[in-house]
Amino acid sequence: MGYLHLFSWHLLLPLFCWEFPGHPGTDCPTTLKIMSEDPERRWMLPKCEDDRTFTAMQCFPGTTACMCVAADGSPLTLPGFVNVTACECFTEYYKMWLKDEKLTSSTKMC
Predict the structure, then answer these.
(1) Domains and CATH numbers, the chain
(2) What is the pTM of this model?
(3) pLDDT at 3
(4) b/e map of 58-78 (b: 16 or more CB within 10 Å)?
(5) Signal peptide position in this chain (predicted)?
C-alpha cells in the first residue's frame, strides 16, 4: 500500500503543481513549433510520435534529466525528481487514474 501512496503523490504533484512548457490543447508538432520560436521555452523541445502525440520519455538536451509525459503532453514526473529510465508504469497508472479505476494493493506494480 505504501508504494501506491508514494506513486500517487509522484503522479498528482506534477499534474497540479508544475506546468509542462507547452501549449494545452495542441498536438506535439504544433507545440514543438511554438516552443522553438519562443526563446523562453526552448529549454526543452518536445519529442513527437508519428501520430502527433508526445513521446512518453522527454529528456533535457545536454543532461541526463528526463521526465515522463502522457500522450497529450501532461507531465507524469518532474525532471530530476525521480531517476526516470522508463515511462511505461507511469503511463499505465495515469491511464487507470483517468478512468478513475481503483488502485488497490493487489494492483500489479511494474
Answers:
(1) 28-108 (4.10.800.10)
(2) 0.70
(3) 45
(4) beeeeeebbbbbbbebbbbbb
(5) 1-19
